[in-house]
Fold each of these.
Amino acid sequence: MPGPPKWRHRFQGHVSRWTVPREVILDLLCRTSKHLSAKEIYSYLYKSHPGIGMTTVYRTLDLLARMGLVTKLVLGDGQSRYEFKSSDREKHHHHLLCTKCGKIIDYSEFLDEELELIRKTEKKLEKKYNFKILDHNIEFLGLCEKCYVFSEKRSSNDS
Amino acid sequence: MPGPPKWRHRFQGHVSRWTVPREVILDLLCRTSKHLSAKEIYSYLYKSHPGIGMTTVYRTLDLLARMGLVTKLVLGDGQSRYEFKSSDREKHHHHLLCTKCGKIIDYSEFLDEELELIRKTEKKLEKKYNFKILDHNIEFLGLCEKCYVFSEKRSSNDS
DNA sequence: ATATATGCAAAGGATTTGCACGGTT
DNA sequence: AACCGTGCAAATCCTTTGCATATAT
């Protein structure tokens, strides 16, 4: 018999039901700005809701992603990560990813130009390839400050 | 004692050695335009070189990626895929990915504007976040023609 | 001759599935 | 009451590792 929170209506009239695990997972994701893996979510929730199993975490994340409330990020370390997808355009952002330590930086500056170009490109691609574009994904890969400094030192001391 | 092919020199004087598995894997990748998974590479090579094991495929792909000859794509279906990275700018491309059936379309049109903007953005991001940007990744997600048509039909017939 | 590369089998991890039980509607 | 959601354990699947052997230089 879960409470009244703000996403409940997204589940009503749906095939889906509003349950405790779904509430707390969604709640956790929308409170953090981090990109959490299923295991991290499970561990965090374990403190307050030891009953929630790993399976449910996966199934819930999958559901939320299909509902469009959450974005699944696949970044190349073995596990997928999830972030809350704000419905507000304001919070839209892209990623900067350190290939050494896995650090993720969200950036939302400089997006105006990017987004304009993206929209233009999307239109052209949709027409040319008969493809319905629903989303895009832009990321820059490289070395964060720490890892860069470290690799500099190494390469000057190396054999 | 492998042959004389064109990448041999990339391995000479290196810590790495020029071996048969490395040659045939590289050769396969540079002949196809597909985005092959480790398993697909293994299966394909099995016909001509049954001796090459899965492990070697993984290790070789990893090496080639670190050498910059190959790009590893992580697209969200369970497995990583690899594509030959042409050193020529001409062949640089981005991806259009069908989230339903996994189809991948490479496109290289419209890149000029994209790349110009990307360079500008990279500079700004590098300065602001003290981040060494080495690569970028742009992809559009959506439905390919077939999957789109199918989902249209479904949604008009659905309960 | 020596250090690196390979293959096999086993280990490791993340994610999924089958099934009986519990909770929502 | 009917049906969906959950938890557990087992099953899958992709990828990595340990180790003895084979190979390139």
Amino acid sequence: MARNDGPGPELRENLVYLLKHAQQRMAELLADALKPHGIEGRELGVMLTLAGREPMSQQQAAQRLGIDRTTMVALLDALEGKGLVSRHPDADDRRRNVVELTGAGRETLRLAMAASAEAERVFLTPVSPRTAQELRGALQVIVFQPDGRDS
Amino acid sequence: MARNDGPGPELRENLVYLLKHAQQRMAELLADALKPHGIEGRELGVMLTLAGREPMSQQQAAQRLGIDRTTMVALLDALEGKGLVSRHPDADDRRRNVVELTGAGRETLRLAMAASAEAERVFLTPVSPRTAQELRGALQVIVFQPDGRDS
DNA sequence: TATTGTTATACTCTATAACTATA
DNA sequence: TATAGTTATAGAGTATAACAATA
């Protein structure tokens, strides 16, 4: 992307603009932090979805993440190729694949979560810890209870 | 995109996930709000950049928005086709195009800004006005002073 | 018939490279 | 030579449609 000279005052107030650029910056910080561990931001999302939970089918994992099952196929192909995830046919329903983290996957996830936390810390550097918590809380409410009032 | 069943607790805390989904929701609300006025979210960004300011070249406008000049060409093609923006060669440097809102463009912008404000109001419904202001302020600091401490 | 995983394909958004006209 | 606008092209990311295996 071209260098951003900074928008006029109209755009600096604009929520879509602010959210998009904040998301892009956070995504770049995360990508850099994950690179040493050989995974990308979306792959961390998949691994977090698979972690600490009863085994899941590809479709269930995709629904959790809010992505299409065809998108999940490509993500799992990559993670399986790196030896971080395994796929087995489900004995109870052989149409399904049971997807799980491998041992290497759990270890990579542990390191990646620490790297992610550090990237978030850098992202939040310019605001106070209290403001950072309010930011996270406000986004959670907006994303997960978009129709409710407060919690 | 597939229906989102909701992620596990790990992802609900994840800033990239929260920012991405918040941005997508805000973008959808804005797109719906702008549809009656015949423009898209990115086109509103271009028009806001061109508004209330001395005339600008395409390249200057692109740099303000942080997009490539080739991307700006397509955006301006669309806006010019709708009669909302005009392009004229710059008399002082005929390599440049001076880009300006037309009268219709200024009127559409006025209506679009009101629609955008209403979309933001809907987006922010689940949080208090005070939290909403803190959210906007925190994002501004993070996006525009990513290396500074507080303001 | 319906569902799961898969493949092929297409669409959106954006960038890079190369062309043109001007400087 | 360098720059502004343009065009052609390519890549990333994602979705839809169609197919095989299974239910």
Amino acid sequence: MPELPEVETIVADLRPHLVGRTITRCELSFPTIVRHPEPEVFIDSVVGMRIESVGRRGKYILIGLVEDLFLVVHLGMTGQLRLVDPVAPLENHTHAVLFLDDGKQLRYRDPRRFGRLLLGTQQALLDAKKMPRLGPEPIDPEFAADELYRRLHKRRTALKAVLLDQAAIAGVGNIYADESLHKARLRPDRIAGTVSKKSAARLHESLRESLQTAITNRGSSVDTYRDAWGEIGGQQDRLLVYGRAGEPCFTCGRPLSVIRIAGRTTVFCRRCQR
DNA sequence: TTAAATTCCTGTAAGC
DNA sequence: TGCTTACAGGAATTTA
């Protein structure tokens, strides 16, 4: 599923191809994928717009149009945003197509439809509760270990649940929560508030390392994730724990345990993570 | 305010 | 082989 590294890969790939392009047409074959504003208004507003920027905030893709207006894409679990030639066969579950002035098409495909498209200024989307208030970007150089410690310290829920909370830290999902906790040798189910400053610093480092490495390797295609060209990532074969329940820990050889935290499958090593 | 449970959705795989 | 059932999970929503 697309988390920060996967979204970052798509954004970096799309940016040079989208900036400067004008949207000439928009087709919605499944209009309810647009959550704000009304689909007809969305189409009318987007057509004729020039793309000024392509960025990311957490797991959200922000396509900058005029002034502060953004076309926002959240991929949910199975969302794919692809830039294709118009001759490319239309895949099933393609819910939206943006036609560009260079003839290319930006297609949104999403079998499980957990994703969404939005249009508005960031403030308006926040006010309309269409986008949540997000925590800091974990790979931002400004994001310090102390900041992570403070955010963990005030919480009385599982450590992993806080990592998954987008209001606490933006962009971390199930894969990189498990990966960074293993690397930091911390149990996912311990109460976040009991984590020491020293442990928080270790988690801070492993979290950033896990995310950066995944970006370098163009993300993890563990489910249906594909980049903007339809290609799989390279991180899925390098994951330490995610998806490896019952298999031996690479560090100690003990079979990895699986539990559920915050409704998510959680894989960890009982020996290495304490 | 916070935390936990529920819901949305379909492809895939396990089990009978 | 073919059917049913369980499962995957990001985040909005509901409940506690």
